[in-house]
Amino acid sequence: MTRLVSAEKKLRSCLLLLLVFLQPTRSAIVAQEKVSEIVQQAQRLLNTTLADGKLRSFELDGNNGAVMTQLVQPLSLQIAVMQVTAALSREMNLPKWQAMLRALGGDREVLKRFAQMRSHFALLEKRLGAGQDGGIEEQLNQITALSTSSTTWSRIWQQLQILIQEVDNLHDWFDRYQRNSAVVNERTLRDFAETVHSGFTIEKALASIHEAVCPYTMDDEDMQRPDNSSVICDGGVLETLQTALTRANDSFICSLSKSSHQLVYDLYALLTLTDAKGYAMMQFSWMLLRLYGKGSYVTETEKARIDFERRMTEKAEAAQNVLSNLTNWMWKCDTPRSEQVENETYIQFTELLQGYVVNEVDLNQDNTCKESCSAYSNSQEKGCFGNQLCAQSRRCSSGRIYNCGFIEADSNVCVTNKPGRRYDWIQYKSGRVFGQKTECNSSTSKNVKTDSWWRWVFWHCSYCMCLCDQPGPHSDRYVSLQSALAASASNRLVTGVRFVKKDRVLHIQIQEGEALPQGSVNETTLQWQPINPIKVPSGQQETAEDGLGYAALRYEERALDLDDLVAPKGHVITGLRFRKLGGHLNLEAQASPIDFMTGSIDSERAIWLSNDNTPATETNPRTKVSLLSPDVSTRSHTPSVPDSTSDQFIEFQVTSLEKDVSQNTVPFIEATPVAPEPPVWLTGIGIYHKGQPGYGGYVAFRIATLNFSDYMTVSSEEFNYTTEEDTLG
Question: Is the whole-model pTM more than 0.70?
Fold first, then answer.
């Protein structure tokens, strides 16, 4: 019994080394020869351990610690397949096992052993098929359809699809036999085993697939980089996909339900899954043919194992090289113009600032016209002289008036009572029009003739165009400062984010889910956290002052900092919130340590991430993103593109006077969710601006998905593996 426990411990230690998903250190390297050496070392130990005869075969019953129960990651699945087939092949040589096979029906017993891996194949297959746009294969087909994508990618991907389909078609039958192992007959299994190794064999298909990943061979001595690492996979399909994604237009990238990094990783996973399926069928077929007395197939089995190990390590290296140079940030496209709905697809601050027509006579206590419009840069409305325009439109009597200027003396103003607007358009006597002129005789609008006048002969009482900053029931200008936290103590993390407006207050809402091992998330636990409502007291709605748990925007403080916050390696995002920093709204993100292999979150060691730079910072001060003559964001016929970087800020401002009579506040705020499908750990959150010249654009969230390349390297220290026998020897 002691020997059994010792052997199991040694085996587990070696298998942990096999998992290339080990935490990298400063000296982390990708070393193909070393990985192969570890694989061989594990194989030798595996054979030695299983030769005991007292050990049962490898089982994937969920309780056996030797094989991970969560095999959603492709490399883990490959290693498990190699372990199971090696153990089963070894056991077939044991006298007791041979007797059992004769008694129970050997072919069906072997089939049952392979059936124990069905759920793990299905788990990875399900993840690759998830997503609103049809899963990984459909997403890769979309790249092929792009005129901007590489023709090389299109050609290689079409060839790969044929090969993958060949393997999948045969594996579908294999899966069917596993599900019906009790009734499938010997003739059927014999035909299947022979089919796997006849015609265009599975072995040839797997070799062709791998050649697309790694076009060169390890035997070519010239295939070395200056740093002595292999280049046999340079120019392969993963690198070709990287090039196609780099060349793809923004409208395609933002339409993806995952980051470019995830997309390439999922292609790697698809190819690895196909390899594991093919290898399992090859080994199963040889085992059956051996049982049926058709040969020993020792040489074929061993060669297939060596080839499988080589393909496994080469694919991992190819994926790591590409993924380490590919962005893991994800952002979303605008909702189509015809489908935009306020408070569903976008949010706006209403009447934060708004164009306002007022006569000079109403801007001073003495009702005089001795100054010019430009003299009133920060004032208040003092009255309504003569019951003219001021008596026929909504006034700015309780707010502040800024930045007045003179346009022309006489005009027609289309006054409206539509929510969020005071005027639809203004036409001056010269024919000049501000806004979009339409009919102005309806239940919601009326045409008011507005003429300046002379007081005596010296003073001209001019109508001025100003900005009104008036808090109140018509102005939604509040932002929650409350934290939106995932239940990290229950192993939940943030999996998505969006803006929501509730009770006139803008909130950050997070989607959370349970973290699983190796970057995965339990999809059944996904939920959008309920918003903790904030009620702005009625007594404070007429002021522009901050309150308990919220900030109120105003003319002097209406800036939002634009930043990308990235968690330290080994951490995931578990919370978000806004704070006030130097009068700006500034994003903070909570990051919590997580164990990659187990998916366990350490909520006690969470930290808050932020960017404390301001426009006044001596080094790397923030710069402003300027919106020049912006029209209403939703009027743009051209999709928005990101135009900001970290360490910038944007001020909410009025729309263009000429285009919209300065009636709206821009940029708008994107309300559509940003969440990868399928869900994955998030390691970064950003706020950015996207738009087109001449429009207000949108402030939106973007997210960074887990960088899998960080977990596809092996620490050089881990190569110094020594068995117990070596130590004693």
Answer: yes
